[in-house]
Write a structure and sequence with these properties.
The structure is a homodimer.
Chain A: E1 4-9, H1 13-24, H2 26-33, E2 37-43, H3 47-54, E3 59-60, H4 63-67, E4 74-77, H5 85-94, E5 98-101, H6 104-121, E6 125-126, H7 137-144, E7 150-156, H8 159-171, H9 175-185, H10 193-196, H11 199-213, E8 223-224, H12 232-240, E9 243-253, E10 258-268, E11 280-287, E12 291-298, H13 302-319, E13 350-360, H14 365-375, E14 380-385, E15 394-401, E16 404-405, H15 406-417, E17 422-431
Parallel strand pairs in A: 1-2, 1-4, 2-3, 4-5, 5-6, 8-10, 10-17
Antiparallel strand pairs in A: 7-9, 7-11, 9-10, 11-12, 13-15, 13-16, 13-17, 14-15
Helix pairs in contact in A: 1-13, 5-6, 6-11, 8-9, 14-15
């Protein structure tokens, strides 16, 4: 059978990895796909830099040479960012080409528009590499768990943050110091905002939530809180109480809508996902029939991400002659069957909380705090008062609450912070049991 | 679009679960599949027992009524065992029906014949439920990791064994006592041979190896060793050395062929898979591009297994109009592209070892043992000699070896057992680092 022709947009880390993997494993990939997957052209920014890797592969600096090339069947978009990636993908679709992309930002922000165009044109847009690198989590959710009503999912889907949190715990180090180390090692970018402030994780969570619940992409409604305010004390106190702190992306079907939130989270240390360390990713999915399932692997890097890109190429190759109505739908559910379940505002989210505050070591402090919590209908699961340090007047008090509503906790925190006996702000970290029930 | 018609063979645990899940989640499943998946007939052994669950579903006691029913598109085989399951599946294929099965024994033993018939007839045979219950591991290997040359995989794929080993460790209990408890709880069958002797795991490993490496099913060449000879002392000593004992199914691409083996295995306790406890399953897969990925979930039970059965039904529904040459191949690789890589005899397998022996507490014992090991080209990684118990003359000696060849270890063990200073047999448990390199 004649080869399928692929055009690459971008030959950087992931593009280079994709070319390398396609070449190294050409024989096995062809045995699987039933025909050769041949890269016939690549668009790059810098011809000189790209030539060594490209070998005899024709290069261009104009990406439209690729998306408009009539000989190309599948366009692989690996340049990242919103523009011109969006324009290139839309034009490739308009030209009747299938698209494979690793661009989570693009899919989370413009997925609805892109999938509608692809549907109208009868082409496929595949994006396994956009979430959790080489872990086939899109496929698992979209095809492996189709029997289930998904109740919730929770993922460690930003390797940079997980690396930083793992190091803070292992070394008792402060956030700023570990961030610098991560930048030195290449685990964090010069501008780490997207990673450490939870934005990258929210892109990925948005994509996962759409596929899990059959809703459109709604990145703008995701609650996003990063790890930059975490202190080494919180990491230590959490550990003393039997928990690990992870940056989780959580999507949960609640009574009135869907919770969509990224934030640092305490998890019981005996959960498998609490033990996912370093730059690794993992997604825990709870289906009503299957129970909890977990998917673990490298969430970034040249070849792990290329693994997902090439898997998508094989999928498209296997399916591209199929009747478009019988292909796997982009968002797992048929496009005319998406639900309008609302995303809940953060105030309506229900979870448990870790609260840390500094108080003067005086009689009545605890009574004031516990009365405020009771007034807000918050019940306390555990409370620890630390010994004051030598010569200090203030002590750390740590509280774990039972599950309650975020609105109540915010109200209680505001009142606690106004107490004369409490110094500074209350540190609030959400806590999830992630139990199978 | 008109419903796709399904006939069930068997309405026991998994059959009942399948019917329940299809009914409960009918709306979401239809939204995903693009059309209703309707069970139109079920074959059962006992009509009276089945009636309550079946409701208005037509029943028969003759399974050929289902496989010969011209109104049925997909036959779901859930009766288990080799015959008449094999005959029924072959007849369903001959009748041009797609088949979904959860029968690992059948697939491992007769898969080659079944897939050849299906290929010739242009129908699909799907078997996600045959391995690791609700975990979509077949899909992950067959479609999610197609970019990779799979280097090895290692799975906890028998829940009964894992439950027993977890209890032995948690409670310091003996194998026999825990087995009885597992039988009382329904985790082990009255005749537990298939589970505790590794046979069930070997069926599943055979299936995974075929998909991972593109080789035919070769169950008869799998090395199979169960957990019934493990003592609580071994579990304890392993733990003292920083390891957990798990029954692993391991398939590894070695230089001269493929290792295919099920046996109790020491794993470093810091590995995620070492912390998979109770009746849960997990499969760790090492691909050359993606690195290590892990898949975790319930490996058995009515609804977890039904989750996989129904996912297969959705897959077949989505793909059944596709050109047969463009569907996902049964064994991941195109049927005319299977490799004849040999399965290695166990003697040629290379791994590390835990050896425990009882010796008289006399000078020269260790010298004798270490000389024998050195003669067999086995190097020692760690050695522990226990204190003799009060009034005992004999002591336990535990050795960990570096990676070596099984043949050499067997030869060394035979010589050690002939020493006058050594009492009884040497306990040998294989040890795998399962490191990402």
């Amino acid at each position: 059978m004649k080869p399928i022709h692929v055009g690459l947009l971008g030959l950087g880390t992931v593009g280079g990895g994709t070319l390398t993997v396609l070449r190294r494993n050409a024989e096995e990939i062809t045995r699987r796909a039933g025909r050769e997957i041949r890269v016939v052209r690549a668009a790059v920014r810098n011809l000189d830099k790209a030539k060594k890797l490209a070998g005899d592969l024709p290069l261009t600096t104009n990406p439209f040479d690729v998306v408009d090339d009539p000989a190309i069947d599948i366009v692989v978009e690996l340049i990242g960012g919103l523009e011109p990636a969006r324009e290139l993908v839309m034009q490739a679709i308009a030209n009747g080409k299938h698209v494979v992309t690793a661009n989570k930002h693009l899919v989370a922000k413009h997925g609805n528009e892109i999938f509608a165009a692809a549907q109208a044109k009868g082409v496929m847009v595949a994006f396994e590499a956009a979430v959790a690198g080489g872990i086939p989590i899109i496929k698992a959710l979209r095809e492996g768990l189709t029997a289930n009503r998904i109740e919730w999912l929770a993922g460690i889907i930003n390797g940079t943050s997980n690396f930083i949190l793992s190091e803070m715990r292992d070394k008792g180090a402060a956030f700023d110091d570990v961030l610098k180390e991560a930048q030195r090692l290449g685990y964090a970018e010069a501008d780490p905002t997207f990673d450490i402030e939870g934005i990258d994780a929210a892109h990925k969570l948005t994509i996962l939530s759409a596929i899990a619940f059959g809703i459109p992409m709604q990145f703008d409604r995701a609650y996003t809180e990063g790890i930059s305010k975490l202190t080494r004390e919180d990491v230590k106190y959490a550990e003393e109480l039997g928990y690990r702190i992870k940056l989780l992306g959580i999507a949960r079907r609640a009574e009135k809508g869907i919770e969509l939130r990224v934030h640092p989270t305490l998890i019981p240390e005996r959960r498998l996902i609490a033990n996912v360390d370093g730059a690794m990713n993992a997604v825990l999915v709870k289906g009503d029939a299957v129970g909890p399932t977990l998917y673990y692997g490298a969430g970034a890097g040249a070849e792990p991400t290329a693994s997902a890109v090439v898997a998508d190429l094989v999928d498209v190759t296997r399916l591209h002659t199929a009747d478009p109505h019988h292909r796997v739908p982009h968002l797992a559910f048929q496009p005319d069957q998406l639900a309008d379940t609302p995303i809940l505002p953060m105030d309506e989210v229900r979870t448990a909380y870790y609260l840390r505050l500094r108080a003067f070591d005086r009689p009545g402090v605890l009574a004031d705090i516990t009365r405020i919590l009771a007034d807000s209908d918050i019940s306390i699961d555990a409370m620890v008062q630390k010994e004051p340090a030598e010569g200090e007047e203030q002590v750390d008090i740590i509280l774990l609450t039972h599950v309650t509503q975020e609105k109540n906790v915010n109200a209680a925190i505001a009142r606690i912070e106004r107490l004369d006996t409490v110094a500074g702000k209350v540190m609030r970290i959400r806590l999830e049991e992630l139990a199978s029930k």
